[in-house]
Amino acid sequence: VSLSSGSQRAPEGAVPPLGLAGDTNGVLYLSLIAEAMKINQNTVLQGQKVTLVPYTSAHVPRYHEWMQSEELQRLTASEPLSLEQEYEMQRSWRDDADKCTFIVLDAERWSGQACADEGCMVGDVNLFLTDAEDPTLGEIEIMIAESSYRGRGFGKEATLMMMSYGKRKLGITKFEAKIGQENEASICMFKKLHFKEVALNSVFQEVTLRLDVSDQERRWLLEQTNHVEEKSYVELKLPAGVPET
């Protein structure tokens, strides 16, 4: 099961207001990072197994269905939300400067618009900033909610694509993943992606894994994702022959 705890349920306001950063240069840098975290609003990342698209209101009903599952609630350390609360959460992920999220689609089913996003959804992948002092540190989460897609490499590719995007577009050079101790499949997947276990929280029964992107790791990450194509979500969603407004 490719699931890391807390998916889509990151604490509100994970990063304090930018003014707390101190010197002017620091505030400016954090402001640039804040804007960068929103740049995926019209971004599609197309891989071999998965396509990543921005999390929009159209995805919320299906996402809400997923999160009624007690298994997913347990694995993501989440409480069930009402549908309206889920819409509010989606708006938070769209607008907040410290969060970046994509919905994971089955690339084969979605290609050529064979089915709408909602019918191709398999999970989500997120990055969020947790340290106002260090905007190069990003916490990453992956959830493959559709059980039939687990153990087939969908979570691995989605995670690699998000890491590459975070490195190239957001300036993330250090990744952390916090996963429930019992979630052995997810821990194993992150270790295969070169993450190392750095902490164990016995109170929350949670393992923290970390990857610092050295030059060697950066080259490896680029090699793993050199097949990924970045496109415009608006253009892909427009019917043929309809001009963009």
Automatic annotation (TrEMBL):
It comes from the Eukaryota. It is an enzyme of class 2 (transferase). It catalyses: N-terminal L-methionyl-[tubulin] + acetyl-CoA = N-terminal N(alpha)-acetyl-L-methionyl-[tubulin] + CoA + H(+). Its EC number is 2.3.1.308. The keyword Transferase applies. It holds the Pfam family Acetyltransf_3. InterPro entries: Acyl_CoA_acyltransferase (IPR016181), GNAT_dom (IPR000182), NAT9-like (IPR039135). Residues 50-196 form the N-acetyltransferase domain. GO terms for molecular function: tubulin N-terminal-methionine acetyltransferase activity. Keywords: Acyltransferase, Transferase. The keyword Protein biosynthesis does not apply. Transmembrane segments: none annotated. Belongs to the acetyltransferase family. GNAT subfamily. N-acetyltransferase that mediates the acetylation of the N-terminal residues of alpha- and beta-tubulin. This is Alpha/beta-tubulin-N-acetyltransferase 9. The gene is Nat9.
